[in-house]
Amino acid sequence: MNMPEHISRAVDLVKVHQQGQAQIRALDSVTVGFARGRFTAIAGPSGSGKSTLMHCLAGLDSATSGQVMLGDTELTGLSDRELTRVRRDKVGFVFQSFNLLPQLTALENIVLPVTMTGRFLDQDLLDHLVGVLGIGDRMSHRPAELSGGQQQRVALARALLARPAVVFADEPTGNLDSRTGAEVLDFLRRSVRDLCQTVVMVTHDPRAAAYADRVLVLADGRIVDDVDVASGADVAQALQSVATVGRAR
Ligand SMILES: Nc1ncnc2c1ncn2[C@@H]1O[C@H](COP(=O)(O)OP(=O)(O)O)[C@@H](O)[C@H]1O
Ligand SMILES: [Mg+2]
């Protein structure tokens, strides 16, 4: 599992959430690696631990036990301050609720993570992203003046501009109509193909998962299926397995 081509990985990852007196074992010894330049979907029913896994992989949440690596950095064991720096420098995020800063324009939102950290602003990449996403005429608007789809496109440009080691997306199409959602998924797939971006996307929607190269299926905090969609043969099986797990709930 300790393979260099795995830009992100977890070994025996356990996460127990404390809820009042109750302990919820959201991740039950998960071992998995994510290859560079691939698009992986983490699928499974609501409550199966998808977001918890993504949060632990991205350094947004701490593990109860086990190991999480991002590139050469072991996240488990870092201080909050060090984790903040790793997230800032190495990770791009896309959330269901867009999470744009309301007082900033679209352009300011997109460039903020780069300019705030004094890094080089890659104008060619910015132009490319804005062009592919079709948001060039929205750059001076604030989020409240944008549709949900436009806000998510801004969030995608923001996530990719910093050339993060991994883009983590949690239900990125959850608040979008199906056509806009398909455009967002197409963009993610294209960013893997054209920019060699590594993308890990959480979704409970089998149709969204089908855009990925690989589908991991979680149930009750464990990986119950791991399908290489790129091989072409197992797409139906992956979807079936997501649907079956979903129905079992
Ligand atoms: N912050 C938290 N506090 C307590 N329990 C949580 C917390 N986050 C998640 N859980 C619980 O952990 C389990 C997995 O949740 P989650 O990772 O959000 O699943 P998914 O994203 O697949 O819907 C669920 O039982 C959920 O209720
Ligand atoms: Mg979730």
UniProtKB/TrEMBL annotation:
Q: Which GO terms describe its molecular function?
A: ATP binding
Q: Which PROSITE patterns match?
A: ABC_TRANSPORTER_1, ABC_TRANSPORTER_2
Task: Give all residue intervals belonging to the ABC transporter domain.
Answer: 8-245
Q: Name a Pfam family for this protein.
A: ABC_tran
Cited InterPro entries? AAA+_ATPase, ABC_transporter-like_ATP-bd, ABC_transporter-like_CS, ABC_transpr_LolD-like, MacB-like_ATP-bd, P-loop_NTPase
The source's superkingdom equals: Bacteria
By what name is this protein known?
A: ABC transporter ATP-binding protein
Residues of the signal peptide: none
Keyword annotations for this protein? ATP-binding, Nucleotide-binding, Transport
